[in-house]
C-alpha cells in the first residue's frame, strides 16, 4: 500500500480547487450566456468581439440613416411631383392665353388662377419635415428658403447641400439647395432670350429662337433693328455688342445694304435662327441676349403681369403680348424639363437607398452571427461540460476521501 504524503494531500486540494473554479465558471457562463466573463480570460478573443461589436454599431447607425434618408427622399419626391404637375397646368394656361380669341377679362381670370399656383409652388419649395426643418434650404435647414420682398422672390437658404452616410462610402442627400431646384433655370430658350423694345410701334413679334449650330454659335448681346435700305425697302440689320456688324456682313454697309424684311421668315446668324412675323416699323428693334438664371417664382410673377395687361383693340400691345408670352412659354417649358430631371435624380437616390437597405441588412445579419458565435456560449455544450466537471469533481472527492481514510488507518497503527 502506498503511504499518503503531505504532497499528495496538497495535490488533491489543488485539483479540487481547479475543479471548483471550472464549475463556478461554467455556472456563470450558463447564467450569462457569454464565453468571456472578463477580457483577461482571452484578450485576443475579447479584441475580436469588441471590433465586431463596433462594426455592428456602425452598420446599425447606417441603417438608421437609411430610414431618415428614405423619409427625406419621399418628401423630395412628393414635393417635386407636385411642382411638375403645377407647371404642367401653367403651360396649359399659357397655351390657352395665346389665342387671339381670348378676352382681356379671361386672361385676367387666368392670372388669378396662376396666383394660386404661385402659392402651391412656394409651399413645395418651402416644404418642411416632421421636425420643422426645411428640405430645400441647404445647410440652413431652419431658414425658410423662399420669401417675397419688394415684389421679388429671394432665396435665403444655403447653396450647399447636406448629405448623410448610409453605408461604407455611400451617402444620400438630406437637405437640398432650393436655388438649385427652383432658382437655377435659364430663361428664354436656355441659350438666349429675345425681347422687343418697349418703344416699338409695329406689330412684329418673334419665336423664342433656337441655336441651330452650336459650333458656330457666338454668345453676345445682339440688336435686330428695322431700317430702310438703299432700295427704299423695309430691311433689318443685326449688330452685336462684341461682334459688331453681323448682318449685312462686312464690308457691306449699314443700313444701305441691309437685307429686305419678309414677314413670316427666318433671320439666321452666328448659329442662331429667329422666326419673325408681323409688320415692324422703321426704328423698331429686338434684342437677343444670353439667357440668365431666373427663379420660377419671379418667372411666374412676370407671366401673371403679362396676362393682366389689357391688349384688346391695340395691335401694337398685342404684338408685345405675344412676344413676351412666347418667351414665358419657353421658360416654363425649361422649368418643366428641369423639374422632371430633378425628380429623376430623386428617384435614383431612392433606388440607392433601397439597395443600401438590403446591403446593410445582409451585413448586419452576417456580423450578428459572427458576434454571437464569438461571444455567446452554446448552452447545450456548457451543460454537458458542467455535467462532466461534476463527475470529475466527484471522482476527485472520492480519491481525496480514500487518501484521507488510508492516512487515518496508518495513524491508528501507531
Radius of gyration: 42 Å
| Elements, N to C (H/E) | HHHEEEEHEEEEEEEEEEEHHH
- Quick one: overall form? elongated
Overall pLDDT level:
87
Count of helical regions: 7
Strand order, biggest sheet?
6-14-9-10-11
- Indicate the percent of residues in helices: 40-55%
| Uncertain regions spanning at least 5 consecutive residues | none
First and last CA, distance = 16 Å
Strand content: 15-25%
SS-derived structural category: alpha+beta
Number of strands: 15
Described by strand count, sense and barrel closure, the largest sheet is: 5 strands, antiparallel
Subcellular location: Bacterial flagellum; Secreted
Keywords: Bacterial flagellum, Cell projection, Cilium, Flagellum, Secreted
InterPro entries: Flagell_FlgL, Flagellin, Flagellin_N
Family: Belongs to the bacterial flagellin family.
Features:
4-stranded antiparallel β-sheet, 53% helix, 7 helices, 5-stranded antiparallel β-sheet, alpha+beta, 414 residues
Structure notes:
- Keywords: Bacterial flagellum, Cell projection, Cilium, Flagellum, Secreted.
- The protein is an alpha+beta fold.
- The chain has a domain of about 100 residues.
- The strands form five sheets. Strands 6-14-9-10-11 form a five-stranded antiparallel sheet.
- β12 and β13 form a beta hairpin.
- The protein is elongated.
Which SSEs are present, and which pair or pack?
Elements lengths: L5 H27 L10 H55 L6 H22 L20 E4 L2 E4 L6 E6 L2 E6 L2 H6 L1 E2 L5 E5 L8 E2 L3 E2 L10 E7 L5 E7 L3 E4 L17 E5 L2 E6 L7 E6 L2 E2 L1 H13 L6 H61 L3 H35 L1
Antiparallel strand pairs: 1-2, 3-4, 5-15, 6-14, 7-13, 8-13, 9-10, 9-14, 10-11, 12-13
Amino acid at each position: 500500500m502506498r503511504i499518503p504524503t503531505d504532497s499528495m494531500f496538497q495535490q488533491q486540494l489543488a485539483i479540487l480547487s481547479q475543479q471548483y473554479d471550472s464549475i463556478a465558471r461554467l455556472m456563470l457562463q450558463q447564467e450569462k450566456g457569454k464565453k468571456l466573463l472578463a477580457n483577461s480570460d482571452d484578450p485576443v478573443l475579447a479584441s475580436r468581439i469588441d471590433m465586431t461589436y463596433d462594426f455592428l454599431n456602425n452598420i446599425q447607425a447606417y441603417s438608421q440613416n437609411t430610414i431618415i434618408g428614405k423619409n427625406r427622399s419621399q418628401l423630395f419626391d412628393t414635393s417635386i411631383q407636385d411642382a411638375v404637375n403645377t407647371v404642367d397646368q401653367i403651360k396649359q394656361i399659357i397655351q390657352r392665353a395665346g389665342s387671339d380669341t381670348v378676352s382681356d377679362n379671361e386672361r385676367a381670370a387666368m392670372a388669378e388662377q396662376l396666383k394660386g399656383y404661385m402659392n402651391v409652388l412656394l409651399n413645395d419649395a418651402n416644404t418642411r419635415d416632421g421636425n420643422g426643418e426645411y428640405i430645400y434650404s441647404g445647410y440652413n435647414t431652419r431658414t425658410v428658403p423662399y420669401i417675397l420682398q419688394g415684389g421679388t422672390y429671394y432665396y435665403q437658404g444655403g447653396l450647399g447641400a447636406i448629405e448623410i452616410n448610409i453605408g461604407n462610402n455611400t451617402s444620400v442627400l438630406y437637405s437640398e439647395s432650393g436655388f438649385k431646384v427652383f432658382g437655377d433655370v435659364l430663361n428664354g430658350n436656355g441659350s438666349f432670350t429675345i425681347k422687343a423694345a418697349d418703344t416699338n410701334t409695329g406689330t412684329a413679334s418673334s419665336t423664342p429662337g433656337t441655336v441651330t449650330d452650336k459650333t458656330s454659335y457666338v454668345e453676345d448681346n445682339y440688336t435686330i433693328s428695322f431700317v430702310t435700305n438703299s432700295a427704299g425697302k423695309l430691311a433689318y440689320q443685326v449688330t452685336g455688342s462684341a461682334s459688331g456688324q453681323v448682318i449685312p456682313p462686312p464690308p457691306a454697309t449699314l443700313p444701305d445694304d441691309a437685307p429686305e424684311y419678309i414677314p413670316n421668315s427666318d433671320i439666321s446668324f452666328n448659329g442662331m435662327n429667329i422666326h419673325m412675323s408681323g409688320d415692324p416699323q422703321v426704328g423698331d428693334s429686338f434684342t437677343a441676349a444670353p439667357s440668365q438664371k431666373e427663379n420660377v417664382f419671379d418667372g411666374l410673377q412676370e407671366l401673371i403681369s403679362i396676362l393682366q395687361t389689357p391688349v384688346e383693340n391695340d395691335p401694337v400691345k398685342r404684338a408685345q403680348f405675344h412676344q413676351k408670352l412666347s418667351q414665358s412659354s419657353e421658360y416654363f417649358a425649361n422649368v418643366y424639363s428641369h423639374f422632371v430631371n430633378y425628380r429623376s435624380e430623386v428617384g435614383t437616390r431612392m433606388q440607392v437607398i433601397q439597395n443600401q437597405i438590403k446591403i446593410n441588412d445582409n451585413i448586419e445579419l452576417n456580423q450578428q452571427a459572427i458576434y454571437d458565435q464569438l461571444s455567446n456560449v452554446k448552452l447545450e455544450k456548457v451543460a454537458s461540460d458542467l455535467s462532466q466537471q461534476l463527475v470529475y469533481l466527484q471522482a476527485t472527492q472520492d480519491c481525496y476521501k480514500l487518501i484521507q481514510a488510508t492516512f487515518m488507518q496508518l495513524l491508528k497503527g501507531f
